[in-house]
Amino acid sequence: MLTRSRLLMRTALWTACTFTAPLVSADPPKVEVKDLGTLGGRFTVANDINDAGDITGYSESSDGQIHAFVYTQGKLQDLGTLGGAGSLANAVNNAGQITGLALTATGEAHTFIYAAGAMTDLGPSGTTSSGKAINP
């Protein structure tokens, strides 16, 4: 004879087993491999992608410098620098704004935001900074 507590335990166990959703999807995730190209050098590194598929990171240019880029609408675009020799992009949000670090003419590494086709310096002089993430 089942006691009341055993009956409740069996009912709870049956309910949990019956109504639990599977932990693994039957359909594997779809993965697409895409060659982004380079800015003329030997390599490209992608650091972030937004919901629209815009990709940002850094790539070697033909003269050996490292520059931040955005890959959007099938094209790799050099974001430039803040007057120095290089830049790196770390993050892109869903508005298409990009952040990272870029070298100034004096060689300092400053955080930048790239929006509406322009790179803006966010780092104060005399310091080193780098944007790592950007809110939507």
Can you characterise this structure?
The structure is a single chain. With 136 residues, the chain is mainly beta. The protein has a domain of 82 residues. Helix content is 12%, strand content 43%. It has 1 helix and 8 strands. The strands form 2 sheets. It has a 4-stranded antiparallel β-sheet with strand order 1-2-3-4, with no helix packed on it. Strands 5-6-7-8 form a 4-stranded antiparallel β-sheet, with no helix packed on it. The longest helix has 16 residues. The radius of gyration is 24 Å and the shape is globular. The N and C termini lie far apart (61 Å). About 12% of the residues have low confidence.
Annotation field: number of helices: 1
What is the strand arrangement across the widest sheet? 1-2-3-4
The main pleated sheet reads as: 4 strands, antiparallel
Query: How many angstroms separate the termini?
Result: 61 Å
Order of helices and strands: HEEEEEEEE
**Which class of secondary structure composition applies to the elements?**
mainly beta
- Point out poorly predicted stretches: 5-20
Total count of strands: 8
Q: Give the overall shape.
A: globular
What radius of gyration results from the CA coordinates?
Answer: 24 Å
The overall average pLDDT, rounded, is 86
What helical percentage do the residues reach? 10-25%
Could you tell me the strand content as a percent range?
A: 35-45%
